[in-house]
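Form 7-S
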Amino acid sequence: MTILNSADLRNNLASILEKVASNRQPVLVGRFGQPKAVLIDLFTYNWQKQTIELVKRIDTLTASERETLDVLLDDKARNMLFSGLEEAGKGQLIPLENF
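Output:
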């Protein structure tokens, strides 16, 4: 994970935000040599937020919510899902007739 000091962040904010968003890789921001904050892309933040909300109510989840949680917690399944969503967002879809 990349660690930046606060001066680097301040001087390069636009390009750092672009890298965080496009690479989906968190960046630690430090001060006086100690990490103080983490920058993450919005997609990852929303995924983490949804996962935390589901875990909070683990005892009352419906079957479909449990399945969603399983997908979100499984790295391979989550990456496949996110990749598919990204392809769909770019219009890279395969017609159903081709299956």
